[in-house]
Structure formats: C-alpha cells, structure tokens
C-alpha cells in the first residue's frame, strides 16, 4: 500500500517538474482554467463538459509524453543527431494534433454560445 501511495508522489513530482520547466505545459494549464471558467459561466451541458475534459486530458497527456521524450532524447543524444531531431519533431507533432482537436472542440462548444450572447446584447 505504501508503495502504491509513493507512486502517486512520483507522478505528481513529474507533473510538477514539467510545469516548472515547460512553458507550453503552463500555457495549457492556463487554457484549462480559462476553459473551465467559460464552461461554468456559459452553463455548458454535461455532454459538453465530457468533451472539454477529454480535450484537457489529451493535451496535458500529450505534453507530458512529449516532455519525457525530449528529456530522454537529450539524455541519449546530447549532440546533434538527425534522428534525435526527428524524434522530437514527431513528438511535438502529437501535441499539435491534440491541441488542434481541443481548439476545434472548444469552438464547437463555445462559439454558438458566445455568438448568442453577443446577439442578445446587441
Ligand atoms: N539533439 C538534436 N539533434 C538534432 N536536432 C535537434 C536536437 N535537439 C533538438 N533538435 C531540433 O530542435 C527542435 C527543438 O528542440 P528542443 O529540444 O529545443 O525542443 P523544444 O520543442 O524547443 O522544447 P523545450 O523548449 O522544452 O526544450 C526539435 O524539434 C528538433 O527539430
């Protein structure tokens, strides 16, 4: 049981280290807080909350894996190596796809509500 709880500590340590060292991860955390605030303010449905939570999970997971891959690449290939470059580029591509999915989902959920709000105010 102690080992199981210690595992959580290591996981939080990894997330904390990523937040401390990676600007992109911090940007995604801020975007998460903003999306949650907008979801609350615009009264999105349970279904929409589920999509939002899926987006946040995908993006943060992709960013954590990308960071781990970057660290590992720097460890095994500190000098310039074409393959090491490809490894990092492919990994960054995965984050981009997750972020793009989140952006499109965010537009689908929030744009109609924001437009309705603007129309109502006009
Ligand atoms: N060892 C290397 N060999 C060849 N190309 C590399 C190497 N390290 C990085 N690159 C190239 O430089 C790009 C940026 O790498 P870098 O390690 O700076 O990552 P980053 O995305 O800027 O993340 P961070 O700012 O967190 O370090 C990579 O995507 C890759 O194209």
Automatic annotation (TrEMBL):
Its main location: membrane. It comes from the Bacteria. It is found in: Cell membrane. The active site is at 63 (proton acceptor). One of its GO terms (cellular component) is plasma membrane. Pfam families: DAGK_prokar (PF01219). GO terms for biological process: phospholipid biosynthetic process. The chain crosses the membrane at residues 23-43, 49-69, 90-111. Gene3D superfamilies: 1.10.287.3610. Its cofactor is Mg(2+). The keyword Phosphoprotein does not apply. One of its GO terms (molecular function) is kinase activity. Keywords: ATP-binding, Cell membrane, Kinase, Lipid biosynthesis, Lipid metabolism, Magnesium, Membrane, Metal-binding, Nucleotide-binding, Phospholipid biosynthesis, Phospholipid metabolism, Transferase, Transmembrane, Transmembrane helix. This is Undecaprenol kinase. Substrate binds at residue 63. Mn(2+), Zn(2+), Cd(2+) and Co(2+) support activity to lesser extents. ATP binds at residues 10, 70, 88-89. A divalent metal cation binds at residue 70. Belongs to the bacterial diacylglycerol kinase family. InterPro entries: DAGK, DAGK_sf, UDPK. The keyword tRNA processing does not apply. It is a multi-pass membrane protein.
